[in-house]
Amino acid sequence: MVSVRDVTPRKRYELALESRNDELEVLNRIVRHDIRNDMQLVTAYIDTVLDHEPLSDEARSQLETALRRALNTVDLTDVLGQLMRATNDDERRRALDVGDALREAVDDVREGYPNAAFTVDSLPPATVFANDLLDSVFVNVLKNAVVHSDRDRPSIAVSGAADDECVTVRIADDGPGIADDRKSVVFGKGAKGLGSPGTGTGLYLVDTIVSNFGGAVHIEDNEPRGSVFVIELPLATVEAAD
Asked: What is the pTM of this model?
């Protein structure tokens, strides 16, 4: 007896999904290239005016506000592209060394924030099944620690440990800390504190990427003050790589 199954609905779903992904990719290119290029031009013009034109205090304050908003828009275009990649199953994954990714992320953020002090403890040899977005996870958490600090010279300590199943990365800061009722809320889409700088999407991106890698992220209190972001990722296995 031959069983015949109608696959037309499934095929229609697959075609619709493919079409939706194509449309999102076009939107991603428009946002990341056209809008990003325009906003970078805007920030360059504002910088030029601030540096070379005599301005009243009020005009300077307004231009500085406009510059911050423009820079936030540029950041958002980066986040959009990374979110698109994070939710794309075709994004190539491979075994990556966590220590290498962490050290590269620290070097990247240190260059952008020379006023911050970073220390990196010895990291265990550990590989995870991930892609280039692993670097974005660490960069976003490190930047978050600096941007939200109330210190003139923020101090961030990076450490790691591994067991037979996973590697745990701890990024500790000496900032104001995060209240218990906000420790999970901060990973929500667009979540940010009142008057907080940034776009409010960096930690949402972190949670999305880590979850797609099969891991988890949470926040603990640091002693005597500050927060510790704890990132847990499963170790790479032969089965996962295949």
From this structure: 0.68
